[in-house]
Amino acid sequence: MEYGICNLSVIPLRAEANDRSEQVSQVLFGETFEITEWKDSWVKIITSLDNYPGWIGKLQFNMLGHLAYKRIRQTPPPITHRAVTQAWKITNNSILYLPVGSSLSFLEGTTCRIGDEKFEIIGEIGETENIAITASSFLNAPYLWGGRTHFGIDCSGFTQAVFRSQGINLKRDASMQVEQGHAINSLHDAQLGDLAFFENQEGKIVHVGIMLNNERIIHASGKVKIDGIDQKGIYSEDQKRYTHKLTTVRRLL
Hints:
By secondary structure, the chain is mainly beta. The protein has 4 helices and 21 strands. A 6-stranded antiparallel beta barrel has the order 16-17-18-19-20-21. It has a 5-stranded antiparallel beta sheet with strand order 6-5-4-1-7.
């Protein structure tokens, strides 16, 4: 088995080995993955964070040895908590802008070492905030299919990023996250940090958001925003109508 690590700020993870293929997720700085296939200028991978498959460009990562990969899996590195953290790439005197949740792999003091490259982290890495503050930091972030950052994020990428800041790893898609945690009895019992899931007409889980209390939810739909919620689902204050049908609320915290 071969392994790799992301040495760029963020790279697209695509459904197929093609620049025009849809972005299904993103790989952030310092995240690792298994390599399962090489195809022309593309590499098929399975991410270590959430076991998510996809294709990345072969020029967008560094190879990683088995022992180094094993070390990271056994001792997960610290992550960034600010919306953007600057990293000085010492080898060519350039700057990378790392999104929230980037992994500071092989961190020694304030320096990350990825292969032959050294990255000096500039300023404070940031501290863990409570879940309400972290979630609210994403307000107005535009919706982006497959996105995981403040500059574009989808509904499950949003919940995954917020919970990752709390030390909890969620799976990538809403239909997968609904299998985690345990269901609560009713919406009336919902509390800060519970995940609410929503279904389409076919009964498939297609949306997820984070409860702020038993009447308000923060979620990514068009942008990250706060809406009201009741037993029927989310009532969009922008659109003046119900937009998502509630199916279950689950607790992980």
